[in-house]
Amino acid sequence: MKYFIFSILLLHLNLISAQQNLIKYVKPIIGSEKMGHTYPGATVPFGAVQLSPETDTISYELNGKYNGDVYKYCAGYKYEDKTIVGFSHTHLSGTGHSDLGDFLVMPTQGKLQLNPGTASDTKSGYRSAFSHSNEISEAGYYKVKLDDHAIIAEMTATTRVGMHQYTFPKSDESHIILDLMAGIYNYDEKNVWTYIRVVNDSLITGYRQTNGWARTRTVYFAMSFSKPFANYGQKNYDTKQSYRGFWRKFDESKNFPEIAGKKIRMYFDFKTEEAEKIKIKFALSSVSQENALENMQSEIKDWNFEKVKTDAQKLWNDELNKIKIEASEDNKKNFYTAMYHTFINPTAYTDVNGQYKGLDQDTHTANGFTNYSTFSLWDTYRALHPFFNIIQPSRNNDMIKSMMAHYKQSALHMLPIWSHYSNDNWCMSGYHSVSVIADAIIKGVYNGDPNEALDACVATAKHRNYEGIGTYMDLGFIPDEKSGTSVSNTLEYAYDDWCIAQLAKKLDRQEIYEEFIKRSSNWKNNFNPTTGFMQPKLANGTFKSNFDAMTTHGQGFIEGNSWNYSFFVPHNPTELIAKMGGKSAFSDRLDTLFSMHLPDSFFAETEDITREGIIGGYVHGNEPAHHVAYFYNWTNEPWKTQYQVRKIMKMQYKPTPNGLGGNDDCGQMSAWYIFSSLGFYPVAPGSTEYAIGSPLVNNAVLTLENGKMFTIEVLNQKDKNVYVQKIVLNGKPLPTLFINHNDITAGGKLTFYMGSKPKK
Amino acid sequence: MKYFIFSILLLHLNLISAQQNLIKYVKPIIGSEKMGHTYPGATVPFGAVQLSPETDTISYELNGKYNGDVYKYCAGYKYEDKTIVGFSHTHLSGTGHSDLGDFLVMPTQGKLQLNPGTASDTKSGYRSAFSHSNEISEAGYYKVKLDDHAIIAEMTATTRVGMHQYTFPKSDESHIILDLMAGIYNYDEKNVWTYIRVVNDSLITGYRQTNGWARTRTVYFAMSFSKPFANYGQKNYDTKQSYRGFWRKFDESKNFPEIAGKKIRMYFDFKTEEAEKIKIKFALSSVSQENALENMQSEIKDWNFEKVKTDAQKLWNDELNKIKIEASEDNKKNFYTAMYHTFINPTAYTDVNGQYKGLDQDTHTANGFTNYSTFSLWDTYRALHPFFNIIQPSRNNDMIKSMMAHYKQSALHMLPIWSHYSNDNWCMSGYHSVSVIADAIIKGVYNGDPNEALDACVATAKHRNYEGIGTYMDLGFIPDEKSGTSVSNTLEYAYDDWCIAQLAKKLDRQEIYEEFIKRSSNWKNNFNPTTGFMQPKLANGTFKSNFDAMTTHGQGFIEGNSWNYSFFVPHNPTELIAKMGGKSAFSDRLDTLFSMHLPDSFFAETEDITREGIIGGYVHGNEPAHHVAYFYNWTNEPWKTQYQVRKIMKMQYKPTPNGLGGNDDCGQMSAWYIFSSLGFYPVAPGSTEYAIGSPLVNNAVLTLENGKMFTIEVLNQKDKNVYVQKIVLNGKPLPTLFINHNDITAGGKLTFYMGSKPKK
């Protein structure tokens, strides 16, 4: 007994001690195989640069053909591949649609080749074979040996600058390729324009403009070499170049410093000694070359690669130390890699001088906040932003300010749907900015004007000509004739409307509250009491015939069939349960979801997930049912939540390259995991309530920005002890299976007593 | 006699009186037919906006075909045409290559048509027939009736804003088209990108990016309507648009405010009453939409079209009043239209807040000067900039500051060759910035650092990999094997080098002086004493065989054959005369040039001029021989200069649409006329000396910026009295046929006594 107490004390000391080395648990390679769509390269928390290898890119042309496998290469890198094309500076983490891949750099030696070549014959181009045994992927650091060129490539980053370090063999023909044709997207006209200026023999600047998932996007850069290049040159692969023939006064192919065109590849020649290192600093800006250069000069002052790496890893370790856990090695890997993945997006989109390019394509200055981009809100409103409200409130505050800036710059007068580098790509359904905003304001995280924010939410929710909102407002649902995703839209709008109502209530804006609390019950209009399912309705008010609850497409849904989506009333489970026949029937129905057998046709049409991303009929690899396992808490069988969430954590998250069962979706999958590991989950952001699940950690200490600590202690934790027997909050038994946000931010201790049998 | 004296007094009083209405003599339509390549629309002196009708544009697609007649439509408007396509905001004046034509606006009524239609069937599109009888073209004002739509179109401008006024008939279907596909250039991929933002129901902003003669060019705009549009919409004609299908959440064709793409046409719908006027303010910026809006708000505060027009015409009148002449009505029209054309280019390229886009594509601020673009220097160094040194010294000072800014922003570290909207199009030969700079510094016009300017000249002249400079420096000439224009290049470099030498001498930079005075005699290396002609030389030092002095192409020249170009030693006629066999032989040779008969093959290959642009073998419509008529002054027959220049003025300049015998070339042709009309000409800019010709005016008073007045009095002026009998400067007979720049800037009076017989 004495020993036990001593251990607890030791543990506690350990958890609150200065800092642990936690980055050793981060395995960026997790999710890089199959469906996770994560990337293994170097970035810092919320960094604007994601410097990562690409094993294939979409936008390059090879023998007149484009690689059409856009979906596979959303993150540029597939663990399954055997060759690396190069290292580019921007990547989306875990998305199901592709873009970015800007400024592909590749070191080579021997005969200069400007085309990437094929994976089956690396000698046909500049690409190289590589082996995972020669690859190191850490938070803030990536290293690989490029077999074809006998070059060691290393990379690290600051917020706005990627740093490369290439160790060359002795060669009179060492090269660094800068491929400005390369990019990630499935459209051969993605490259709109490229401009490059060779300032001197070791600095170039320029910009690249693309028409990809982000429609109108410009990225400026500054690229500095640690060693002057001996020669440089370029080739323009555009077959339809402007007529300038008569006035070509220069040989523009070699050592010509003012380059512009649509499809440019550049090279830089060096003579290298054995093991000579050539380093590159590559800075980005959304505003100007000048700003890119300022970003570079501010963030990396010299050529000390090790220092930049150490600093990057310290930034990561600082972030990771905000939650110290005790858990198995594998669970620590899963947990800290999940934290790593939640701290990648959104990404900083402000230069060091505060400037950024707004949605209106003009330059703005972010006064008193960091502007962010890459808001995959349909995914991330669920758990990522709620997680930030606990562990990154300052950043989430800035993210809401970024959304408000987007709103003010929007000619549509709308909050972002999917904020994407000075664009909205309007991807997926709902207007979930309002959930993020309401949740943050209700939880006291936003320090801007809450009434202005509410007005922005209302304006967005009343934008009649956006995706059926007009008919939704008129009829209370979207007729199937008007939209292929009428049901999921109506359900998501209803939830978002509830968020607006909650915010209006808090701000004492009674009229808005009443309007939106009424709208929030619109989910009922798609509920068919006869079948017990959410179903598409026709304009005449009748349900569409030939309903199939197993099928997504053509049935009014997106990324989830009616079996999953019928549970999408996160803001009113009580009434949903009543509609579905009461607690017992509801619980049985959840059981069926988690145990049903799916036909093969289901897998054929389901996007973004592997077969392993599904448990019974429950699709964890997509987001619409992420809250569903927690719904047992509203029934008389809450232990089934405990059972299911532990099962999901075990089945869907593994510390291996193929460890994610679906797209990580800019951190949403990972945020689900973190919440669930800690034992609770925000079923309805906009509410301050978290539903209790079954913690996976043995213990956890959250260090909050307000200086408070919140400890989660799990007693009798074992693999088979998934059932919660008792919960004590700050010494008092928890009366329900819910805790409040204030319980966490006030600091304190939540103790779980676990057992192998349900506590009925 | 008393009456005569009284008349003279009256005349003098008239000439120096407060202000005359001189814009009535300006006929912008002069040169708009055939080869002049001028435009008839509205602009202010050196304005950034040139709002002018287009009778056809190059870059629009019609039934899958492009109008290939790029050369014809350099200025967008051809007097010969019967239809107008629309009114765009940027035009080059008098060039022989095409670009610009940004933001074509066209008012229509009736059925909406978004394609321009054909000239032969105006009903097939939005274009309209028009008649010159319903057309008014004035300095700063243009008006035309669009017959197909029964709409009166009027336009005027400020420096950075074009103002339209359309008088509609009563119609429920009135439209204003904004065609963002239209543009002037011969390349169907000119449009790189377009972005438009509908800010509200009467304001849109955006930008247009092109790859034309200027390779990398972006023009931002703000467009404000005096009346809110009822509806608006767009069509994207790009057949290869980015994949965005699934995420099209809006009907983007109508009332959708965030538009982007390569080939966009927009429309704005109105309901109009009979004679209702809809006005548009259309502002440009090279920097941002925000700046365009600021330009608009600063320059036109309300909707008073008449006031803007009055202000524009006052600006013109102020400029024109700097030279008051007495002459025949026709000669006044020619003279003031020439002044008008000389004050169009270069164009202001700075926003009201001082910002502009530099050659490096970054935003810069012009501190203490107006930044200018559109420097057609191969043309304009000859007479336009020397004219500015007399009559626009402040602006020429700013122009040189603009050139220096260009130099500092140039990755090539070169002064401009042809400065073109943040680009250098490197058109034509030589590096004539150095002539403009040397001339201005030597004449005391430049208030920047002259040594820095000299360094920029030297760096440019030593840029070895530009257009044969390397071999020119090594061999003293450019081998024919290296360049198709080896002889004209060598000749022009030699003259430019002499300018550098003159500047170095003034600045006491002895080493530079010696180096460049030596280089300035390189013209001798292409002079073949056997033939007496400038001829292409091979790398082995021998002259190329099959020489043909009548032919330009393939003979080492550009825009001038050896007959014309062999006289291109403006800086050293004395030695050229010696080489060519002495004064008498030289004089005979000039006679031959002016009287020879040309074969038809000559006209087939000669660009930029009409058959009328040629006198004998002397090509006035192109520039290389512009100084040649003045060369008789160095012989014993100077009266032949007097005869020839009067003949050239009479034959080459007429107050009619087809009145210019060649491209006006951004004012060079006009500047030649102004100098010659006043009786003198700068044969070798860089020297302070002007060669005397034969004035066409009766009298002229130049009001200089330093407050001094310089009067040219011509006694016994008649059409046939082309010969100068005597010249008196400030009461003293002029000892030579040359006057000095200082004679002019000091103020005073130059009296010509004319007669019908040569004064031998």
UniProtKB/TrEMBL annotation, chains A, B:
Residues 291-756 form the Glycosyl hydrolase family domain. SUPFAM superfamilies: Six-hairpin glycosidases. One of its GO terms (molecular function) is peptide-N4-(N-acetyl-beta-glucosaminyl)asparagine amidase activity. Keywords: Calcium, Hydrolase. It comes from the Bacteria. GO terms for biological process: carbohydrate metabolic process; glycoprotein catabolic process. Residues 25-285 form the Glycosyl hydrolase family 92 N-terminal domain. Transmembrane segments: none annotated. One of its GO terms (cellular component) is cytosol. Its cofactor is Ca(2+). It holds the Pfam family Glyco_hydro_92. PANTHER family: PEPTIDE N-GLYCANASE PNGASE -RELATED, SECRETED PROTEIN. Monomer. This is Glycoside hydrolase family 92 protein. It comes from Flavobacterium bomense. The lineage of its organism: Bacteria, Pseudomonadati, Bacteroidota, Flavobacteriia, Flavobacteriales.
